[in-house]
Design brief:
Structural class of chain A: mainly beta
Helix content of chain A: under 10%
Largest sheet of chain B: 7 strands, mixed
Largest interface: A-B, 26 and 28 residues
Helix content of chain B: under 10%
Number of strands of chain B: 11
Number of helices of chain B: 0
Distance between the termini of chain B: 33 Å
Radius of gyration of chain B: 14 Å
Strand content of chain A: over 45%
Distance between the termini of chain A: 41 Å
Number of strands of chain A: 11
Strand content of chain B: over 45%
Structural class of chain B: mainly beta
Order of helices and strands of chain B: EEEEEEEEEEE
Number of helices of chain A: 0
Oligomer: heterodimer
Order of helices and strands of chain A: EEEEEEEEEEE
């Protein structure tokens, strides 16, 4: 059974810092990995999706990497801003037959203070 | 529509009552999913529809939970004899079909804002 762990559970940083959020998964036979952002009381916003054949994806100040063999992904946020404050969730799709059936981590609560 | 739409956004009910939650997926998305998110946790998979049929309902916790998608678009999650433990945010997501050959088909899921259910 796939298990996803995110570290740290919470992170508080001053504005402008570069930061890294970590995600690990127990079964390396994945189809894709997706990073989401969730604001309080809101739904999930997709940030980046990495296919199993890819090593990284970038969107603006965000960069996500994937190392299947070690069961790890990292989300790098450059030059953090207060508007980046949210919960960040990592989710893994464990194969073609599990299409859309994501296993989520518990999330990292990020606070960026001015 | 432009995004996944869920109604109601909030529902408060009493223990033992029946509840329906509605999801309207992104136009053109034939795959639809329901997830449940308890406070402080990541979402957990409930059920996946491909078209009108439930392709995978392995995440439904018990037979009080049921979901339908009669015309392959809008879906309704139905909860009978609600219990306090059913209180959570119910999230709906949609995506292109697993079998879609579109170059846009990355398997990416798009979520709605959720329906917050509180059972008193």
């Amino acid at each position: 059974k796939q298990e996803v762990t995110q570290i740290p559970a919470a992170l508080s940083v001053p504005e402008g810092e570069n930061l890294v959020l970590n995600c690990s998964f127990t079964d390396s036979a994945i189809y894709n990995l997706q990073w989401f952002r969730q604001d309080p009381g809101k739904g999930l916003t997709s940030l980046l999706l990495i296919q199993s054949s890819q090593r990284e994806q970038t969107s603006g100040r965000l960069n996500a990497s994937l190392d299947k063999s070690s069961g790890r992904s990292t989300l790098y946020i450059a030059a953090s801003q207060p508007g980046d404050s949210a919960t960040y969730l990592c989710a893994v799709c464990s194969g073609w037959t599990s299409y859309g059936k994501l296993t989520f981590g518990q999330g990292t609560i990020l606070t960026v203070h001015p | 529509g432009a995004g996944v739409s869920q109604t109601p956004s909030n529902k408060v009910t009493e223990k033992g009552k029946y509840v329906e939650l509605r999801c309207d997926p992104i136009s053109g998305h034939t795959a639809l999913y329901w997830y449940r998110q308890s406070l402080g946790q990541g979402p957990e998979f409930l059920i996946y529809f491909q078209g009108t049929g439930a392709a995978d309902d392995s995440g439904l916790p018990n037979d009080r939970f049921f979901a339908v998608r009669p015309e392959g678009s809008v879906s309704t999650l139905k909860i009978q004899r609600t219990e306090r433990g059913d209180s959570a945010v119910y999230l709906c997501a949609s995506s292109l079909s697993r079998g879609s050959s579109s170059v846009l088909n990355t398997g990416e899921l798009f979520f709605g804002e959720g329906s917050r259910l509180t059972v008193l």
